[in-house]
# Entry
Amino acid sequence: MRFKILRKDGFARNALIETKRGVIHTPAFMPVGTNGTVKAMTPEEIREIGYEIILSNTYHLYLRPGHETVKKLGGIHKFINWHGPILTDSGGFQIYSLASLRKITSQGVEFRSHIDGSLHFITPEKAIEIQLALGSDIMMVLDECVPYPAEKEYVEKSLKLTADWAKRSKDYFEKHRNDQAVFGIIQGGIYDELRQKAVEEIVKTGFDGYALGGLSVGEPKEDMYRVIKNIAPLMPEEKPRYLMGVGDLMDVLHAVEHGIDMFDCVIPTRNARNGTLFTSQGRISIKRSEFKEDNSPLDPDCDCYTCRNYTKAFLRHLYMCREILSMRLNTIHNLYFYCRFFEKMRQAIADGRFQDFKKEWMHVLEKNFS
Ligand SMILES: CC(C)(C)OC(=O)NCc1c[nH]c2nc(N)[nH]c(=O)c12
Ligand SMILES: [Zn+2]
# Structure
């Protein structure tokens, strides 16, 4: 994997991540395709909207259909019919949030599947073995995603484990190295000095990119913003910086301003399915009765398939009927909105006017159209 910085505007930067399956223009957003699908979308639609990389989850694919099965069937790209870059998350977060967690030992994590209750044990090595079998382009080490709130001493102990696991994940990868990339994950809760130590530890092991984990887990916004502001610039400048699980476009603006390159979040897809749509006039809840006879497009400034062909009244009708088409049309629009936002943000950085872009969008994004 190669990472080339094209333009800087303060700490914000445009860059290219070159993988064997294609180039990613950063700052980049990765739609979440947990079970190998970005819910309600075909891979062609995702590509057509303009996305270059999607995220999938090791935890889910390991449990179902199984990483050996995916490998036997030709690997994840063939299996899900997405031939661009795929980043797989290691399961660190999913095990804590989905599985009925049994216990964390220094060896690894024992847990019961949220699907059938079967017992599993994942080690840092196993997490990489699974991702190697899947054939993802960017792999994540196994980390302990520290919940919020967490006492400082708990976080400190957890950091030692996460640093040890990062080393074990990397050592295992070095023994089975191929052209896949592997990213380290920096935890440390809301404690800046612990985060700083984590950066030093993880960078010492050495990775193709570095992620900030354990944020947007319920901590106050100002803590998340402070950690991003203080820690992102300490992460190696010449490698991709990935803020996991984020996010809300106001948070994205703050993170890009401090040098973050990659994002993943379920907001555009999950909110679409719940009828919350992002428009240039602010957020819209399509189920509101005021749209019952509204013959106007969802967003007059949007030229996505949904906005070109349907009215708010019909989108509301589909939502009220819980029609499958409602999920599809809403998802198309929200993903299109996110993709255009990132395109405009990259253009603003290229033109050296990121601060103007941020100011211009901050008041749009905090506005609720209704
Ligand atoms: C609650 C939400 C999902 C919004 O954010 C987070 O949990 N953010 C943290 C996060 C997301 N994905 C991760 N993967 C891994 N390996 N580790 C992590 O800490 C995280
Ligand atoms: Zn649209």
About this structure: The two ends are 44 Å apart (CA to CA). The longest helix spans residues 324-350. The longest strand covers residues 2-9. The CA atoms of residues 245 and 265 lie 5 Å apart.
